[in-house]
Design a protein that fits this description.
By secondary structure, the protein is an alpha/beta fold. Helices cover about 45% and strands about 15% of the residues.
Amino acid sequence: MADAALRLQNLFEQLLGTPLAVRIRAWDGSEAGPPGAPTLVVRNRRALRRLLFKPGELGLARAWVAGDLDIDGDLYAALASLAGLVWERGEDAPGLLASLRDPGARAAARGLLRLAGPPLPPAPPPEEIRRVRGNLHTRRTDRRAISHHYDVGNDFYELVLGPSMVYSCAYWSAPEAEGGTLEDAQRDKLELVCRKLDLSPGQRLLDVGCGWGSLAIHAAREHDVRVVGVTLSQEQAAYARKRVAEEGLTDRVEIRVQDYRDVADGPYDAISSLGMAEHVGAEPYLRYAGDLFRLLRPGGRLLNHQIARRPQGDESAYTVDAFIDAYVFPDGELAPVGTTVTQLERAGFEVRDVESIREHYALTLRRWVANLESEWAAATRMVSPGRARVWRLYMAASALAFERNRIGVNQVLAVKTPESGRSGLPLRSRTWN
């Protein structure tokens, strides 16, 4: 066989009902598709078996992580072009999974199956997390999920995140092409959070999901507050404590390995939660909001920085992409921003400001991808080729999702307003802009 690429192109286009915008290079050396377009490299027949037995996002991801598929050329352009193999995009481009419901498309699927050949579908790559039976979002399952994502090595995170070691959306005044840098944008985000919380010397700040300690250090050093940071990651805590000691801030910053549900030493003057609430889950979210409300003094502020998805027709459906759930953030769930605001208000908060910074996350992710790609050989030594491929795919695909408004990210400022009704905010609250 020396025409596998042409056969693949024809079968994929028959399945999807639309021309492929990528070129295909198959295991037999053949190529087909638009000249000059990004090339989907199908290294072996096993890639087809993964796609067919798990149609859609998870099958494509498994083939990518295992190295059965690769991209030659612009990764972002290729992912955008391959969206029809993954996501349902309406009647004109329904996605591979929906296409298989059509009798005509099933004939093409049978053609792919013949081309794929035996044996049965291969086992998932070892980077895929194994599901545990039982309830989600117990203390044990949350520790396991956090460890899967964060305990992959601090040196790897240093490579991806850069010196700031902040793993949430930066706040850009200008893209890098116009003079902005990732480190500047992350510093500006930390300062933005502190200004929204109106921190002043001597106050107590609780940083829920404190990561590697960047916000805790910034708040203590620049605003002279006392900070308690909590995380479930042993590696994060050890790294953060070392940084705190190097900054000479051990008298003002305490880093704990502790579940937010177990924090009992309130009240705090302010609480920050940056990129942590996505791990909480839809069902426990009201309790999460209630716990933070309980830990604040009257008049205290919460800054909740959280990724959001677009509303869906069936709000009871599981709300995380299959690839993200299996390889990146196990048990994570995304809600629309309106749901988040409602839950915070049900817990007793007065929501005073919601700022969408969706485009900022796309810029941040593209910088993280560039960091990873520039040190690819080192990254694969630090973790594994499969794990590095997980991160490259997840961050690049997420950048596109933010750019195309499939997901967003919002900073929600809420107050534990006292009975007097005095929120403590100025009449024009957007004084941080």
